[in-house]
Amino acid sequence: MKYCILITVIAASLVSIEPSSGADTDLAAFTKEMSNHSGFRKIIQQDFTKWDGNDDGRLDDEDGAIGPKGLFLTRSTFNRVDESKSNSVSLVEFLEYQIREAFYALDLNRNDSLSDKEKKHIKKPAEFFKWLKKSQLSFIVEGDKAYLNGTTNGKVVKQFQELFKKHPEVKTLVFGWMPGSDDDEKLLKALEIIKKHGVTTHAADHARIQSGGVDLFTVGTERTIGEDVEFGVHSWSAGRKKEGRNLDRTNRQHKPYLDYYNSVDVPADFYWFTLKAAVADAMHVMTEEELLKYRIITASAE
Ligand SMILES: [Ca+2]
Ligand SMILES: [Ca+2]
Question: pTM of whole model > 0.85?
Answer without folding.
Answer: yes
